[in-house]
Amino acid sequence: MPDPLEAGRLLFAREIEFERGVVSMDGLPEADLPEIAFAGRSNVGKSSLINALTGRKALARASVEPGRTRELNFFRVADRLRLVDLPGYGYAKAPKSEIARWTALMRDYLRGRQSLKRVILLIDARHGLKANDEEIMAALDAAAVVYQIVLTKIDKLKSGEAARILEATQTRLAKRPAAHPQIIATSSERGDGIPDLRAELAALARAE
Fold it and tell me: Nearest Cα to 131, choosing from 98, 102, 90?
């Protein structure tokens, strides 16, 4: 049986390319590959995590300004998987009408995409689950879309704090019907948890 960590490493060592940015549901690519969507509050470190995961420094645009991703960005991984970078929710420097538009687009995609295999829900380890994270989780529970919590910026915490936030998050997930049981703690800067996340996603990829 292949080693999951090695399978993850090999998959993400292959060709990865930006496929398209989508501003409406009719612009979605054909649902011909398993898709993994990355969701989280603005400035949670989504683009940095995607760059660390893929080993590309600028595949996803990282920015210190919250709310810069304003469309669904699709990345193709070796014709076996798609990664989907969703707009951040919460704070964003944009008109309310624009925020409403991309929030509706994100919700429509999460509710109705047959090829969506999992949502990676990013939570800043320094802050834990917030009310708007719970709203997204409730929507995913209702739509029966599996989501997995990935803690970001774990390097900003002391070791004891990291264990505490992991335990508190696990407790909050216990009664969530669509929540994946494993939480992965990551650091895009240090690489913590990246091999484990690659292994999880490789297990969902289309077989060769």
Answer: 90
